[in-house]
């Protein structure tokens, strides 16, 4: 099972549709998430695919296509990681991490047994009776005695932390309700905020005018953006009549002062990854609650950390 699972998930990650946006499924992907008016704005057209970019989508320059909830293009699976295969990608990382850990554990056990045939007192956890010199000499002997097994063990030992780190990073992104692509966009926003060039003001989703050509009338997401974020070239606030939202523009200095619309909390974020198409709309009782984050309020404090982790 631990040997078959990584191959199976590798196959699914590589050959399943990552979420390629086509004219046929465009309306479907437009209804998955609302625009957050911070990193995704309505009305943007992909110049290559010539389609309106659905919220959270990105054009992959390698595959030359737009992918829904694009995370990144992964060279290991020769495919994008997106809405369609993100769950398989996480399961690939998890199963590979378990396999390499188990392989390293078995290999070290065999090497240990090998060394003990010569020196019964030797142990993988260095016994105090051995000097570091003797301990390492015998360990090297155990690895070299069966080069094939020794090298595979070393490979498993060295790759295991990398795979667990990548898996942890992806779980952290899920915890923050973001993607690799979005964390880079937030990183850009952080630079603008550090310079004092970023401004926000409220949006009321109940009274906001929508352009039906640019935005779907319905999404399965339970909340809508209650803030608009803009940047200016010289750090002066935008005019009150320009940009989305109403009221005064307020300068934003920190990521924690803006909201990440796509973070519903760790459990719901997991559901969003592992149950594609799940409608979260049942979780709010009336349409009026949309956009009024009360129980579901999440600030972007996590985003600051994810940006720090990425840099
Ligand atoms: Zn495109
Ligand atoms: Zn790609």
From TrEMBL:
Instruction: Name the enzyme's class.
Output: transferase
| Reaction catalysed by this enzyme | L-cysteinyl-[protein] + hexadecanoyl-CoA = S-hexadecanoyl-L-cysteinyl-[protein] + CoA
Give the residues annotated as coiled coil.
none
Q: EC?
A: 2.3.1.225
Q: In the UniProt record, does the keyword Repeat occur?
A: no
- Give the protein family: Belongs to the DHHC palmitoyltransferase family.
**What is the name attached to this protein's record?**
Palmitoyltransferase
Taxonomic lineage from the root: Eukaryota, Fungi, Dikarya, Ascomycota, Pezizomycotina
